[in-house]
Design a protein that fits this description.
- The protein has helices at 3-19, 22-29, 33-47, 63-90, 109-120, 133-141, 204-216, 230-238, 283-293; strands spanning 52-54, 59-61, 95-101, 124-130, 147-151, 159-174, 195-198, 223-227, 244-247, 258-262, 269-277.
- It is of the alpha/beta class.
- The chain starts with a helix and ends in a 6-residue tail after the last helix.
């Protein structure tokens, strides 16, 4: 007897054990009463012992039948719960979504998307990890995470990539800097400035993008200091040791000790892209992509 047939026979038995009436049980199971009788007889034959005592007036469980019912009732309840749980996972309504992000997505893009996603899919657990852009590519390739916010562009045949924003760049200066007398700054204006940038360990992808942009304008980067985190960068700038360059997504979080001016150039933008593996067909991933794609544009 295969598992499916055994499950069908056992389910029929539990219904009869609950009703202790073959007519009502057949109605519950949408079966002919004679077909239900044959199922019970077949199960008793397979087991080698009687499950019911039958008279012309009543049906009752044998002692062996009662024990068999009590054990299988728990099994069937667990089976039903497991089917419902698996169905929710298959529909992307429960399970785990492993999400990673880099610094430029941490202030608005990622939190807003996670907030909306959790409202729509409250039973999906969201695991968050901060990973710099280059590390995200490796984590995605090794299936350590499901989806990531990284600096773009990123074009690879094994991955989907969705452009979320292309943030203008701003120069961040001390409060008494000469740029504060200007409404806007052009790339060439930074040629003689001493720059403070994130180091190549934590800010590698961003540094590459800055190098590409400034090199395209023939402007060498005069890097005098490096720091690994935002607080150190801002502290060094506020102390008058140089200027730095930040995307618009972080401008509202810089504090009062520095000033900002936009860099006017159509190509001086930093892309934030959402990336996930083409082979990852989990519905939770698809649902999160739809949420992130349909968030209102930043004002």
């Amino acid at each position: 007897m295969d598992a499916e047939a055994g499950l069908e026979l056992t389910h029929s038995f539990t219904v009869v054990a609950e009703e202790l009436n073959f007519r009502r049980s057949a109605e519950r199971l949408n079966l002919d009463q004679s077909a239900l009788t044959r199922r019970i007889q077949k199960l008793e034959h397979i087991l080698g012992f009687a499950l019911f005592e039958r008279t012309t007036r009543e049906v009752s469980l044998t002692p062996a039948g009662r024990t068999f019912y009590e054990e299988n009732a728990r099994l069937l309840q667990n089976y039903s719960r497991s089917v419902k749980a698996a169905k929710l996972v298959a529909e992307g309504k429960t399970g785990v979504l492993r999400l990673c992000y880099m610094a430029f997505a941490a202030t608005e893009l990622m939190p807003h998307a996670v907030s909306r996603f959790r409202r729509l899919y409250p039973h999906v657990e969201v695991n968050l990890r901060y990973i710099r852009t280059q590390g995200q590519k490796l984590a995605l390739a090794h299936d350590e995470v499901d989806i990531g916010y990284m600096i773009g562009p990123f074009d690879h045949s094994d991955f989907h990539s969705l452009l979320l924003t292309a943030d203008p760049l701003y120069v961040v200066t001390p409060r008494n800097h000469r740029f504060t007398r200007l409404h806007e700054v052009r790339p060439a204006d930074l040629a003689e400035e001493e720059l403070i940038l994130g180091d190549m360990i934590e800010w590698e992808a961003y540094r590459w993008r800055l190098n590409d942009m400034f090199s395209g304008e023939g402007v060498p980067l005069n890097i005098k200091l490096e720091a690994s985190n935002t607080l150190a960068l801002l502290g060094l700038v506020a102390a008058g040791l140089g200027v730095t360059v930040y995307p618009e997504s972080l401008i509202g979080f810089l504090g009062r000790n520095v000033e900002v001016r936009p860099i006017i150039h159509p190509d001086f933008r930093i892309q934030t892209v959402l990336v996930w593996k083409r082979a990852n067909r989990a519905k939770a991933v698809r649902h999160f992509v739809e949420v992130a794609k349909n968030l209102p544009a930043r004002g």
